[in-house]
Amino acid sequence: MSATTNRFATIALFFRRIGSWFARAWGAVRPGPRAWKGAVFGLLAVALIFMTWASYAVFLAPPRIVSFLMGGIQFIAIAALVAALVVLLVALLKKIPAFYGWALVLALVLLYVSFFMEGIPTPVGIVVTMLAAILVASLVGAAVWVLARGGWKDTTEVQLAITLAGLMLGLIGLGYGAYWLLNAGPVVEAPPNAAAMAAAQVTPLGMPDPSRPGQQKVLTLFYGSGQDRQRPEYGPDVDLVTSTVDGSPFIDGWNSGRTRFWGFGPEALPINGRVWYPDGEGPFPLALIVHGDHPMYEFSDPGYDYLGELLASRGFILASVDANFLNRAAMGGLEDENDARGWLLLEHLRFWEAWNETPGNPFYQKVDMDNIAVMGHSRGGEAAPIAAAFNRLPYYPDDATVTFDYRYNIRSVVAIAPVFETYTPRGQHLPLENVNYFVLQGSNDQQILTFKGLGQYARVAFTDGDTYFKAALYFYGANHGQFNTVWVTDQSTPAKGLFNQRAVMPFEEQKQIAQLYITAFLEATLGGESGYIPLFRDYRVAKGWLPDTIYLNQFQDSTYQLVSTYEEDMDVETTTMPGGKQSGANLSVWREHVVELLGSELVGPIDTSAVYLGWDAAASGEAASYAIRLPAEGLALDERSVLVFSLADAKEDPTPGADDSKQAGPRGPIDLTIEVIDGAGQAALLPLSSFSYLQPQIVTVISKAPFMNVGGPSPSESIFQTFEFPLVAFGEVNPALDPADLSTIRFVFDRTPAGVVVLDDLGFRD
Length: 766
Prior knowledge:
The protein is of the alpha/beta class. It folds into four domains: 1-30; 98-182, no CATH class; 195-424 and 434-557, Alpha/Beta hydrolase fold, catalytic domain (Rossmann fold, 3-Layer(aba) Sandwich), CATH 3.40.50; 561-765, Galactose-binding lectin (Jelly Rolls, Sandwich).
């Protein structure tokens, strides 16, 4: 016997003796039935003591004794029920054969992986679907096996009837389940479009339709490593060969399986891109777009061809950046890699700068390096602002041993259905200053279930005196995947069977909206075509160009003089601009609070506060109002000035203490009165609907079954709409009004009987 064998024998003997000692010790002290009962009473006693202690603090509200007793009893009943269900489950598991238990666990794991292979389906939906599939499969399998193996010969008539009934029920359930998963979903009636109901006279945009192709002939080429083993367009067929870059400081979780698939590691990332560009002299503005997370085997970078063809025909260069090697895969995903996506955009710009200065290169002196945009979709929608922030930093915020020396003239950022803060430098919000910013989101996004990009929108600041604007667009019916022609659906099979695909707008319509708005944004911010800016204030100026759906625009530019942003302090009377005062009369709701969106309990509220104002004319008997007395100094107004503010439906019951889940407030369009008063007391009033009615919150129809929705059966969120009232319009109501001497802005809630609205960012623009 070898020394190694002796060593293992000695170790085994040691553990055997240890186990024997514990067995004898347990036998000596093993409790009897009475001890077990005593232990039960002890457990119940300590649990009741702690429960009473907690109930005393939680439930001891007037009427004190009743509240305490009812709360405590309810708490005990729920706990007892949960305990009983757990014991019942354990008992049932002990009764089933081990082989079935093994198959049950295996089926649960496989079903879980199947539904979560792509995206994040609703938790309730996936649990119900898995349990239903297991129940139906067990019924059908048991009945078929019994009948096929001749077990029916040994059964009674009753047992045989039960077996046949189980088979029939299982087959019916199987057929209905297959139909339900494969069906596109129920037809959904679109909510009323509040803006379209207003009688406002909107002047059409006096510009060419930006979604129409331009006059330039479009050329394409590919640049890349020339060594790509998965992509011939970046391998032997590449047009421009690039060197690799070291991304290891930005990447965690890269494993050997990923290296084997791609043929490189994080220290040698390729610079790959597909380009659409005009056949002309130039120089042309440059835009880079990076995709988001998707199975890395289904390459995402070709999916923005519809944007590339259009933009190139209109005199822009668009490069779609290949970041598929950062995407998720069966061998494991990367951890918080969006800073790597943003950094990769800047590394691509290094090559563009060099090509623009290299004689003989196809892009020699054809790139306008003074007009650059970075764009992204999904995780790329967060990467684009990360790139713009990194562009102005000397060091990587998370590791100052990594130096940055970019400083490119990135003037514009586009975020398409972006994720929310997967990257937080030093645990803080990502700042973004002195760039133009545009974010767009669809209401029926089945992956990004809320308008997360509004968090970044709120943090875009203009501080250097130059001209910029930021805009947000929310529109009804759009999903996540149709912004990319490779993705199209938001979930893969079978997970997409849980979602209502019939509620998603047609593919071509969603592409049309993206083309029109993104092109108009780049024309306005890089191409000098300021005539497109009104589109971002009010979609109705593009009447005839856009599909018929609901649009909510938010807008702010660097000329805004903001009086009230509700960010400054805890005093509800103070305005952000020093010297003003805010007051309310007959309001049933008046509070300043962070703005929470759908799923805020998971991702947190967006980084902005606002004032919530509620009224109920039937209860108060008088019209409620909210007034902002303007600061005596700091405002420069004249007859050309425009009153601006953002407003949203809060979907709350205005009655104090009401249950909002049962009484959701007014669901029709909301109207109210805007009153302006000058220093001499001259006043003029206009209805909100003279610009637009306020859109009620839009219920997002995501899942096929309402109980599967995140956020409840009728999920929705407060999405702001920017309202604009030229002071000249008030002057037409009262010619004696002096716009240069305004003293007060007053909101009078006299046109809709009851409701709660959210007001933010009140001020003036030129």
